[in-house]
Amino acid sequence: MNHRPHPLLEETGPRARGRERGRRTAAGMARTWRTYADLFDATAATGGRSLDVPALALASVAATRAWAPDLAEEMEGVAEGAGVPLWVVAALNARTEILSEAAAVRAGECSTLVHVGTSRTVGGQSWDWHEELAGGWHPQSVRGAAGDPADGGTLAFTGITEYGILGKIGLNEAGVGVLFNILGHTGDGAGGVPVHLVARRVLGSATSFDDAIDVITGVPVSASTVMTVVTADRVASVEVSPAGAAVVRPDAGGWLVRTNHFQDPVLAAGEHRGRLEPETYDRLRVLGERVRGRDGIGGPGDLAALLTVHPGDGAEVCCHAPAGGRLGTRWATLATVLVEPAAGLFQVHDGGPCTAGPGTWETLAVPAR
């Protein structure tokens, strides 16, 4: 995975840090944007809709500016550094919301496992997305000005993200980790605060488990997702949607297993994704069976073995794109991630869990101050 750029963003202040991101990732952002532009068109056409992507993107900027003005300013800096219009950067950060507006149907998506124990808490996930975007992500490390109100109190953090997107999956210097699964609600659309920017805010500002929960549950979003917050001794998933937010706790054995449907009974009344793609329930069932009675995740090899589930196993957690097919139908597991907050450990494998081995994991260190 060393061929992927791994920018360390150290500029103080959101606009300067954004400019640095834009300059250092401009080529990758341009490639990624071309694919997303085609994906927006393809999914809208499939759903019989038309999208005004610039307008939807700028609406998300307005929502972000009202909630977290520093993140809106950082996106402005990215646009300046990359030499692209602001709406392009905003569309990348709001790609989930825009695809929701297009009524995109997804086959596959992410699966997450976390075990919280008395001696060790370890979590991880597969990240499934369109195979055409396999080159559209990269590791990142950010070290801002902690405690500076104008900078959103940016803690140092590391993780992976997509080109142009400020944050996604990661671990910060306070030992707060974030894992990420998309959900679908009948009320989903565009125009709210992008869920990826919510993850970025947690990574950059949450100094504790409770801080992270408060950030996520207080955001006006227009599309649904579940962010799993992992610290040294606690874990919970926060389901967010236009209908509200709910916190889902681990089971009695300390396991939290997530796929791509609501588990909160109130929010599940508005379930959209699971009705269209019932395979999310199959993945939850198979993973639940695999972890039942186990006392935790032993490390990256153990996580990869648990997540290596193919159609012959009763579900598809480790996803492989078909040889043919059009854009929007070719799903693949692009990355596999492990996080162990007490050890300050974040590891990523470039690809699906079935291809992981002792020498394929890259350890990403949270930058020291």
How do the helices and strands line up, and which of them pair or pack?
Layout: E1 8-9, H1 14-24, H2 26-46, H3 53-67, H4 69-82, H5 86-93, H6 95-101, E2 111-115, E3 122-130, E4 137-142, E5 157-162, E6 169-172, E7 177-182, H7 195-205, H8 209-217, E8 225-230, E9 235-241, E10 244-248, E11 255-258, H9 265-268, H10 273-276, H11 279-291, H12 300-307, E12 331-340, E13 345-350, E14 361-363
Parallel strand pairs: 1-4
Antiparallel strand pairs: 2-3, 2-11, 3-12, 4-5, 5-6, 6-7, 7-8, 8-9, 9-10, 12-13, 13-14
Helix pairs in contact: 1-4, 2-6, 3-4, 3-5, 4-5, 7-8
What does this structure look like?
- The chain has 369 residues and is of the alpha+beta class.
- The chain has a domain at 106-363: Penicillin V Acylase, Chain A, CATH 3.60.60.10.
- 34% of the residues lie in helices and 21% in strands.
- The protein has twelve helices and 14 strands.
- The strands form two sheets. An eight-stranded mixed sheet has the order 1-4-5-6-7-8-9-10. Strands 11-2-3-12-13-14 form a six-stranded antiparallel sheet, with helices on one face.
- A hairpin with a 2-residue loop joins strand 9 and strand 10 (244-248).
- The longest helix has 21 residues, at 26-46.
- The radius of gyration is 19 Å and the shape is globular.
- The two termini are 25 Å apart.
- 55% of the residues are buried.
**CATH architecture grouping of the domain at 106-363:** 4-Layer Sandwich
User: Might you state the CATH topology name of the domain at 106-363?
Assistant: Penicillin V Acylase, Chain A
For the report, how would you describe the main beta sheet?
8 strands, mixed
Radius of gyration: 19 Å
Number of strands: 14
Oligomer designation: single chain
Give the low-confidence spans: none
Given this structure, which CATH class of the domain at 106-363 is correct?
A: Alpha Beta
Strand order of the largest sheet: 1-4-5-6-7-8-9-10
Structural class, from secondary structure content? alpha+beta
